[in-house]
Records
---
Amino acid sequence: MQVSAVRYADVLVVAVKGRIDYMNAEEFKAALLPHLVNCAPGRDQVVLDLSRLEYVSSAGLRVLMIAAKEVRPRKGRLVAVSLQPVVREIFEISRFTLVFDLFDSVQDALRALSPKAASMSHTG
Amino acid sequence: MRVRFWGTRGSLPVSLSAEDIKGKIVEALIAAAGRNLKTRDEIEAFVGRDLPFAISHTYGGNTSCIELDIGSDEHVLCDLGTGVRLFGLDVLARKGPRTPRTFHVFMSHLHWDHIMGFPFFPHAYLPGNRIVIYGCHAGIEEAFRRQNAAPCFPVDFSRLSAKIEFVKLEPGRRVRHAGLDVTPKLQQHSGDSYSYRFEHGGKVVVYSTDAEHKTDDVASTHEVVEFFRNADLVIFDAMYSLADAVSVKEDWGHSSNIVGVELCQHARARHLCIYHHEPVYSDAKIASVLQETLRLEEITRTGHTLRISSAYDGLEIAV
């Protein structure tokens, strides 16, 4: 499991790669939460790019719930994009589709969160 | 070994409403339209084969009670929810009021929905019968005595004619009772609950209800996986969706279908039976949860196939 981040203006795109289960969920939590510290309107809103996430178990979803709860009091936006079909089904079955706004692509999410970030990503 | 489910609903007994019944009849008649159903046999075949279970049947509304039938003259139960009333009536119908009879009951915990059937268990009122209630809680006898006492119930515990005994079990200690090897395990639930691993004739049944398996602690998850290891049947509290279980209903003491599938996959259990249904769920909703759970098993399967079913009042599983 790997977590990496790229900034586009006031948005952080955090990419998650690999598989998350109960064996590495704590590692995922430690890698993800620091990116949420400043998540608030107008600054460091977070797009989770899950295009290379192959599988997420209940332990991984629990971390995502902790992340969602972390940003909620600050009214920050934490959205998820590009879910692989299996992960999308797991989100649906677990009802995490009710927890996260989902977008088809990073670009779609950036357009929804920050036009400035969207234009930056477009121009590379 | 045969496992019979007499009560499968979580927290509170429920029943179908008049509108619920009407809705099932309407759906059945819509499905029957255009078919040539003239005889009773044709109609019964159509109902049994072509109608979805949630229309032709109901998952039922009695609270927790299951029976483990190992072919002995003595009866073995888990929990004394309202399902035990039907169990008692069934024994009377099949065997008559002849005594003495012995009943062994393994209690997951003492919350109301798990003991509320006992005052209506007919065999408690028949002299000569023996009821042995096993559990790990210190206050188990007190809970039953308080329930069968004013102002909760008109018949005081002291007036029950059967001989009622209480046997304290120790978590993690495998013992032999009622012809079964039994191991209790502590679970996370308000006031604690205990699962049971029953072994008989090379078969293993795990009864794990009213348990919040959080899977965020590797060591405790390993313990549960080992407890479920190679079980032929795991009866599992899947009352909530995972999103609810880790947010608004966190620490309410129940698990999800997702966690049930994961634990059973890790343990290489053969059959997961979803149990302790949320009382607000309709038959259609429970059927939908089952379909989703079947799909989850399919898309997360890694070589080992896990059979999945959803418990209903009246279900019987041969192990």
---
Amino acid sequence: MSTMSRSDMLATVRTCMQATLKLSDVDAATINSETTAAHLPGWTSMAHLELVLALEKQFGVMFEAEEIADLASVSAIVAAVGRERAG
Amino acid sequence: METVTPLVVPQVNVNDETVRLVRWSALDGAIVAAGDAVCDIETTKAASEMTSDAGGVLVHSASAGDQVAVGAVIGAIGPTREAAAAFLAARVTAARPVAGSGATPKATALAAQHGVSLDQVRAAGVQGAIKESDVRRFIDASAPALPAGLAKYFVHEGALPPFDAAVAGNLRRSTQGLILTSVDMDCRLGPAHQLIKDAQASGRMVSLLHLVIAAVGRALPAFPRLTSFVWEGSLYRHTAIDIAFVARSADGKLFTPVLRAVDQLSLADIAKASQAAALRAMRGSAKAEEFEGAAFTISQVLVPGTTRVVALPSFGQSAILGVSSERTAVAWVDGAAAAQPMVTFTLSYDHALCDGVYAASFLAELVTVLETRAS
């Protein structure tokens, strides 16, 4: 699998979040590694599932179903994507 | 009779009589929804994806690598694995088109899709071959007649889709035996909101639904009549607090995964297990048993403005909790009026098993858990 820098990964995560979390009112630049579901009202539990499926498709990975509840922050998502791509 | 939809190989290229089944993208026994991709097929000119015409449990009757005839049945989707397998055992041979059988591939496919035996269909053409239009005419003629004078207002669209028919059959069977009534209670969400916000700030997805599942798991053991049901005059009680929840994906797919022994799970376990179960259902990788055996169901409707949700228990259950959308209301808190996030719980239950006081007492306990001991 091709390598991807952390900033490229973050940019792709942002794109997936904007597509699935209905963030039309949110400036993408404000989404950073500190962002959690608590910061974004559109990041609901159902939207979270849609986000996980979009991330899997975009990055060509498959998360463990039992770990997705702990992916409610951008930093956790980027770390999990990195793990899956490396594995 | 349970309705099953066969998975029929389509005519992709006019000149191809067979295609190769390249791979199954939905596993044998997987739950699929209408429109889901289930397998890839390959003709002499191109590869394409086959999708399911119905929702339910998919059972394969052909293997990856097989060369299969156009119009052949390579699987079936039914309300249960057993129903789909029984259908295949009975029909797969009859549905497979045979050279010289006198029916076109499209006619064979349409007949298989509607469970019509080609022996019943008469060909209108002079050459005697049964065409798709012949099968369509037979299906229309077989539809039950509408009351006189009404037929001109309708067009016949065929049988109810198998998955919808299975759900309707389940609910009809369940509610026929119930004396269904309901009771409502409001719940303040201040403490629950704080708990959700704290969890999400630490990177864990926890929602109101997870909190309600946890609270029901705590309250339900003291109300065994709500996990019992009456069948043919006998009383049965579930042996575990297994709770189903209704989830809906962005594209409208409904599913009801079951969490086991919820009374023994922490909130973190419930959040983790419910999201894992919902993800498996959305991926199409959940097994049929993940949707079976619930003692109680929770149905949350998130559409803003929904004030009460009166739901119907599934077969084998006598009660279901409806959860309204959240709203802001004025409540009396610590001696002063204050704007509060609120939700309304509606418990639909069988009056043969419990009365209004029993049902309302359960809701009161649930509200107490959520308002004062949400954790």
